[in-house]
Design a protein that fits this description.
alpha+beta, Immunoglobulin-like, 5-stranded mixed beta sheet, 18 strands, binds 2-acetamido-2-deoxy-beta-D-glucopyranose
Length: about 250
């Protein structure tokens, strides 16, 4: 049985080792808007693997290490200088991809949850006011044309984006008696078949590596088995003949 256990353990060890080396931390925004207004509160959460000896998190803002070490980084009352890219890292995961957060000054801001959308994604839009002041008679506009009207402010969701949903968007509404428009943003809808959506090369390499390890291991196992069988056979053959002879008589 040990002939089977040993190679299996080897494959599993190699598997978890390579995996641990490749796992990336992920930065999650909560709430999930990538554009916010000054004085909004935002929590950045680092999802990664922590070790019992070192459960600290490293945070990077625009490439420089910041002093914060908790898995959650709370930005209370955001300022423009909180804009930029954020990355995190834990003891047992590698540096995350950057997440871009932009902090704007203004009365109204059209918020989105991503910077680039793919065909089939749902696009969530929010006409957000400074300090969440009440906004009424809200219109969302696409390429200058009214797309959606809400008497009381609500989020506008495009459930399955197509290429035709690309273009410039803004929202407007009444804050008190004032008719206010947000700045426009451009939304691009990428093609899901574009090269950037293919599986990353390191994942393919990883699968090939595991396949190779498994093949080598299987070969080792069978050659070991054969070696063991032939040595057992060599040893037992004379005994077999010896015990058989008395029966034949
Ligand atoms: C941010 O949180 C504080 C309490 O911690 C709250 O008073 C404030 O209204 C929040 N800001 C916004 C824009 O919701
Ligand atoms: C942003 O600027 C304020 C002063 O206006 C300062 O207190 C704060 O530390 C700065 N924050 C960052 C992340 O640079
Ligand atoms: C705000 O102004 C635009 C023209 O600038 C107008 O078309 C729109 O109806 C106004 N909105 C409201 C709610 O009055």
């Amino acid at each position: 049985m040990w002939q089977l256990i040993l190679p299996t353990a080897l494959v599993l060890t190699a598997f978890s080792g390579v995996r641990a080396g490749l796992q990336k931390a992920v930065v999650i925004l909560d709430p999930e808007w990538v554009r916010v207004l000054e004085e909004d509160n935002v929590t950045l959460r680092c999802q990664g693997t922590f070790s019992p000896e070192d459960n600290s998190t490293k945070w990077f803002h625009n490439q420089s290490l910041i002093s914060h070490q908790d898995a959650n980084y709370f930005i209370k009352s955001a300022r423009v200088n909180n804009s930029g890219t954020y990355r995190c890292k834990t003891a047992l995961s590698t540096l995350s991809d950057p997440v871009q957060l932009d902090v704007h000054i203004g009365w109204l801001l059209l918020q989105t949850t991503k910077w680039l959308f793919q065909e089939g994604d749902s696009i969530q839009l929010r006409c957000h006011s400074w300090k969440n002041k009440p906004v009424n008679k809200v219109t969302y506009l696409h390429n200058g044309k009214g797309k959606k009207y809400f008497h009381k402010n609500s989020e506008y969701c495009i459930p399955k984006a197509t290429y035709n949903d690309s273009g410039s968007y803004f929202c407007r509404g009444l804050i008190g008696q004032k008719n206010i428009s947000s700045a426009s943003i451009h939304i691009s809808i990428g093609d899901p078949m574009s090269p950037s959506s293919f599986p990353p090369w390191h994942q393919i390499t990883f699968c090939l590596l595991i396949g190779l390890l498994f093949a080598i291991d299987t070969m080792l196992y069978f050659s070991m088995q054969r070696g063991l069988q032939s040595s057992v056979a060599d040893y037992e053959e004379p005994k077999f003949h010896w015990s058989k002879e008395p029966q034949d008589k």
